[in-house]
Amino acid sequence: MEQQTTDFDTRVKLAVYRHFAQTGQRPASAEIAAHVGADADQVREAFGRLRANRVLFLEPDGETIRMAPPFSGVPTQHRVIVGKREYVANCAWDAFGILAALHEPGTVISACAQSGERLELPVGPDGPPPSEWVFHCLVPASRWWADLVFT
Amino acid sequence: MLFFRSEELVKDWCRARGVEPRPIVSIPQLWGLATEWYSTRLAPNARRPGPAEMREIFARLGLTDSFWDPQADTFGA
After folding, report:
1. What mean pLDDT do residues A20-38 have?
2. I need a surface site. Which of A13, B34, B50, B55 has the fewest CB within 10 A?
3. pTM for the whole thing?
């Protein structure tokens, strides 16, 4: 039974990630239910287990996906363009992470958090070109999950 | 987790908020973090790195400050 639950959760997780990868948008739980051939309650329960395992971050309603790192379900200042698709990242790290997950070249679009200067960085298969831009994280690694939205 | 145009602008941002600057990460280091964390994320067996693996990843990328220790309980306030 436990193995069946694990297998089901893996199918749900893959369906969520593939939806993000193919569309740039978060899927509704009903879309995932249709995709995996389950009912909405089963998918909501799987979302809860994936949240507990730190795979998904959900809105307070317990079924709307806020984050499936590196993908964001809501607008942020960090965007990634791959061909004609646009993605939203949770943070600067995840902006690069989307390209790493997709294994595709693309462009990271963001801004300097202090000056507001626009960042538009093309990223190839081997990574970004030399750049004087830097990354800064205020929250230490031990507390990242305690307040993921702030981090 | 934010981008800045320069380290000087990180200091300005921190000063305006009354917080100490944290370790600066270069763009090549950030790409290293992204690939280590996410390059298998769409695969069936993908998983987040555990604490020991996180330390190894950070060390490989030269991020050795206690800020990066996923189990430190003493960094900052």
Report:
1. 96
2. B50
3. 0.90
Report the chain B residue with the minimal C-alpha distance to residue A10.
B44
Residue B29 has what pLDDT? 96
Q: Which residue's entry shows tokens 């960090």?
A: A78
Q: Which domains does chain A have, with CATH numbers?
A: 2-68 (1.10.10.10), 69-129 (3.15.10.60)
Model ipTM value: 0.89
Which of A57, A102, A58, A98 lies closest to A79, judged by CA?
A98
CA–CA separation, B23 and A133 (whole Å): 14
Tell me the Cα Rg of chain B. Answer: 14
B66/B76 Cα distance (integer angstroms): 10
Q: CB contact, 8 Å: B22 with chain A?
A: yes
Give yes or no for a contact between B75 and A140, defined as CB atoms under 8 angstroms apart.
yes
- Identify whether the C-beta of residue A113 lies closer than 8 Å to the C-beta of residue B3: yes
Nearest CA in chain B to A91: B1
* Partner-chain residue, chosen from A69, A92, A141, that has the shortest CB–CB distance to B70: A141
A113, A119 Cβ separation under 8 angstroms: no
